[in-house]
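Re: the request from the purification team.
They wanted to know what the chain is likely to look like in 3D before they choose a buffer screen. I agreed to run a prediction and write the result into the notebook, where they can find it.
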Amino acid sequence: MNATPDSTPAVEYSTLALGRRLGQGGQGTVHEVTNKKINKSAGGGWEVAYKEYSPTILAELDAAALAAQVDLPRTLGATEGRWLCDSTAWPAAVVQRNGQTCGLLMRLVPDRFQFTLKSLTSTSPASRRLANLEYLLNTDSYIAGIGLSISDRDRVLLLADLAVTLSRLHRIGIAVGDLSPKNLLFTTDPAPQCFLIDCDAMRLHGATALPQAETPDWQVPAGEDKATIASDSYKFALLAIRLFARDQTTTDPAALAAISPQLADLARTSLDPDPAHRPTPSTWAEQLTATSHVASTTPAAATVGRNRPRPNSTSSTSSAPGTAPTPAASPVRINWSSLKETAGALAAAGLLLLLVIVGVAQNDSDSAENASSQPTISEDTYTPPEPSYESSDGGTSTGGNDGSEDDSYETPTPEEPDPLDEAFADVSPGDCLNVHDDGYGEWSEDEPDTVPCDWTTAYVSVTDVTDDSDACEDGADSSAWSHVNDDATTTTLCLERQFQEGTCFLAKESEGKPGGAGLMTVWDCDASKVPVEYGFIMQITVVGEGTEGDCGLDYTWRVHDGQDTICASVA
């Protein structure tokens, strides 16, 4: 272990009045500090936590690198120093015992980066939690059910804020390294913003205080250096893809392409095995800002019946008149795993630092206008605030999750069947439904309604009913409609588009001509407007076998696994 430079201010451990233990893990133990605050000028100061490293970590700790992190804000300009302290839980002071570094002081998470997590059942009370980005890598139904209100525009702007943050950190000389949702918190009030934690693990000017580690499923390609600007760009692309796919592990940018083809292109380039080819976060920030102006501002609804269709608008490409289209990549599959499994995964993600820096202060007095550029330590007497919420065992909750709570997501059997559950259960293979993609990535109906298959409104046929959405065919003219029942099981309807002459669907514009088709969409043929991602209304002129090459001046699409063909003209 290296000694801390004499020029670095240090706090003697014996002067700390420690309160509750907030967490314990592989790196050490964390306690609240009741007699000190940092950034006293920031409306009275920020509450503090003390992180004491374990003996194993101390043996690997580069104390000089940690001291350089603590020194950093006062070496920056006033504006940059204030920004760093307001956007991250940056190490504020080195703590020593008998002249040797034993830990650090850091600020607690501001209250605005917490939320009240609602139970998915009526059997458990709501609890205060860190607003961790991992919550957003789940289905819209789950996210709305636990009390979060997030629109696609919010997602875009959160990524834009993070991209700007990474650009500024890189300019300062900081590489995040373990850039994953467990180390990222978010808020949308008053505006979408991210907050970075676990900062003592970051790399500053090539030096790292702790050995570099990576979160499973968030690693850079094998053999690549960790904690670099290029590795941050790689992991940012993973986050962008998964944030819109509502998925924890996918690398398929199809869902991102449904928001913006340009963003999907950036994601593909950012995942290039060659680090030199990856775009910078500032390039991302520019495109994300442009996309935010057209992204939907409607938060996901809490109803579990109206789930987002699989993205399909970019998976089918029209061919020039009389020629066959070129197959495109299959769209991403949405992960409809059970809510109980999802809740368990989230509980397992409650790592040490999430427990460490959860805010216990009632008032969020951390405005950039009031913060000083260099955190200062005060000896002010600390009076604990009144509890703002209670944990499930009746004690005051810190907002963290130590994994000791019972599974609060287990759903009791309802006294009466849910009508929506019954509506999905009544559907059988071979039935036809009047549902379709409404052009904005949502189903046109809240619940399935069967109609005779020879009706013009029989837009889809049901090929299978299953509890696994991954069992459904995945293509431009097929999708899965999943519903989470009251008992936490899932009913998934595998759907195949049925085409009728005279009806219309939407297509994107490509070099002034119809391009990628939203074959699951249905649109008014006489409409004067289309959703922003589309450019054409296509009217079906012929449906059947053997029409390819016989469409004349019309455009051609292969459907139903190539068994059928449709001809369509611009309406």
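For the purification team: Residues 8 and 71 are 7 Å apart (CA to CA).
Please add any questions underneath this entry.
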